[in-house]
């Protein structure tokens, strides 16, 4: 019984720590979105609600699993109340001069780390703003504007899905992409390498990568875009702020699908968005129904 109570205390303490870390992450996300950008603020609120709901669900499942493992332990509420009621402000009865000096050094170190982190977030926010301005100008010249796509690991596939005139699921796009890559291993393997070391990867590693495309929310790359251009038999244009646009699948004589790649986005790296005409009345070319 004592072991189960100790395990429960550790789990609840971890839950509290994870909630605190999530709120810190959320504050960082909020600092990247201008207050006057209503569209992005609305998306931010949705992302925050999703993150909080996912954590709440995860914690609830862990508590339920614990209760299933220890069905006779009825101390869940009391342990939770005990932890919530702990006086975290209590200090040891006596600290030596060396201990106080050490604590001051640690406090100064934490303050410095916080200042560096804040400066980093401000710099990232500046990069995001500059990137947004450049992308808006590039798209405006093409009579286009950005169409926001959720940052959920499927953004590249959702951006493709957004521009197709026929109905297709993200799961179907992922499956068709992986199938094409498996059937044409020799076309893709020379360009597939270990992202950490840059070393060439084996055929088995590549096939495992294809499995992840279907089974997980793994981010897409130029390899998957190349496969998608063949699957859809349509060129795919990728617009970036600080580099020339990339067109994949130029051998297909059709109007390309256009994606926007944002390097500084959502505090998690790259992100793909879709586009839409500036003039709501304009009509684009119709893609063929492939599914």
TrEMBL record:
InterPro entries: OTU_dom, OTU_OTUD6, Papain-like_cys_pep_sf, Peptidase_C85-like. Residues 1-61 form a coiled coil. The keyword Hydrolase applies. It comes from the Eukaryota. Transmembrane segments: none annotated. One of its GO terms (biological process) is proteolysis. Its EC number is 3.4.19.12. Gene3D superfamilies: 3.90.70.80. It is an enzyme of class 3 (hydrolase). Residues 144-278 form the OTU domain. Keywords: Coiled coil, Hydrolase, Protease, Thiol protease, Ubl conjugation pathway. Pfam families: OTU. GO terms for molecular function: cysteine-type deubiquitinase activity. It catalyses: Thiol-dependent hydrolysis of ester, thioester, amide, peptide and isopeptide bonds formed by the C-terminal Gly of ubiquitin (a 76-residue protein attached to proteins as an intracellular targeting signal). PANTHER family: OTU DOMAIN CONTAINING PROTEIN (PTHR12419), OTU DOMAIN-CONTAINING PROTEIN 6A (PTHR12419:SF13). This is ubiquitinyl hydrolase 1. It comes from Physeter macrocephalus.
